[in-house]
């Protein structure tokens, strides 16, 4: 076993594939919306593990469920089914448009399954050339090869050889652009109701309704990636429920396990019938540990107390951000919904989000960026209101310190 004392941030560069640039400190403990690092410094967590920790760190109900299940059955494979998976599937069905569920372990895997299902459905129910997928610039759907190809950020898909084909990208929220490319060869339109990684951009009401109508006209499936926007993040269980537009396939992950890896793809009876035994699969997807935690997370999140609290917390964040902006004038606008908030830096601070995050961490507050010019807030849905206020005070000091260096 490696001695604890040699585990520090330098170890990362020695032993890990160099695909991330993690912060200088190493968190070792979390409770609620607070985190402590190796040196004992405490942080208020506005990042929430990138919209994963909907109930904060180590929520007692999740810890308890995991402990209990860990003494019963960890893993059994999909050669057998298991009670927690069936229970969670039924809960998701009861709470949404869906009638069938597929479990996986990550957002990318759920999307991979969604895109394969959409193609399979179109090929078997319509015709073999109905394979075109329409997706959007700036979209993010994960890092498998199919999902980076559908994602709208070419930098993630290039440099790995030939990409999955027949995928067309158009500007988000531009219905005319969708209308111009959709045809009877289109199998699916794929979108995030609120683009997360791409800049915290909500779909407009007219756009989502218009895309739904175009999909119906051309017998294309509408796929909503709610990996980030789902599980209560916007104040409803899924963001589509704000719009009154129902997808044919929906993917959910991140907060579904409150920090324990699990994802799901939801769809209808009719569409799911395009898959037969052996058409797709996973070893770990739907394992009893993950599904047990998912059941408890869903039961807690899908309650008026938690969902209605999201809107209230949004107001506190926006009020604090506006106050900071009155003093320092660094933000151009605030975007998002519920606790998926983007604070867009003004043109003169373009590309500086990461520097501000680093300064914020020094002052004891963890947050994220979306791209290099937007500060992103995706905290626990139940973060105590006084911790929002305290965290925003720390952020204000961080911004004032960063600005005084930047301007001098
Ligand atoms: C909208 C969306 N889809 C898919 C993914 C990929 O999820 P994962 O990293 O769990 O594969 C993410 C991750 O940030 C996401 O925000």
Commentary on this structure:
It is built from 14 helices and 17 strands. It has two domains: 9-58 and 304-407, Alpha-Beta Complex (Aspartate Aminotransferase, domain 1), CATH 3.90.1150.10; 73-302, Type I PLP-dependent aspartate aminotransferase-like (Major domain) (Aspartate Aminotransferase, domain 2), CATH 3.40.640.10. The mean pLDDT is 97. 39% of the residues lie in helices and 18% in strands. The N and C termini lie far apart (48 Å). The chain is of the alpha/beta class. The protein binds pyridoxal-5'-phosphate. Residues 50, 106-108, 111, 140-142, 192, 196-197, 225, 227-228, 253 line the site of pyridoxal-5'-phosphate (PLP). One of its GO terms (cellular component) is cytoplasm.
How are the elements arranged and paired?
Layout: H1 9-15, E1 27-31, E2 34-37, E3 42-45, H2 48-51, H3 60-70, H4 83-95, E4 100-104, H5 107-125, E5 132-136, H6 145-150, E6 167-170, H7 175-181, E7 186-191, E8 194-195, E9 201-202, H8 205-217, E10 221-225, H9 240-243, E11 249-252, E12 263-267, H10 269-272, H11 288-301, H12 304-328, E13 331-337, E14 340-345, H13 353-362, E15 365-366, E16 368-369, E17 374-377, H14 385-407
The structure holds pyridoxal-5'-phosphate (PLP).
GO molecular function, one term: succinyldiaminopimelate transaminase activity
Main location: cytoplasm
Subcellular location: Cytoplasm
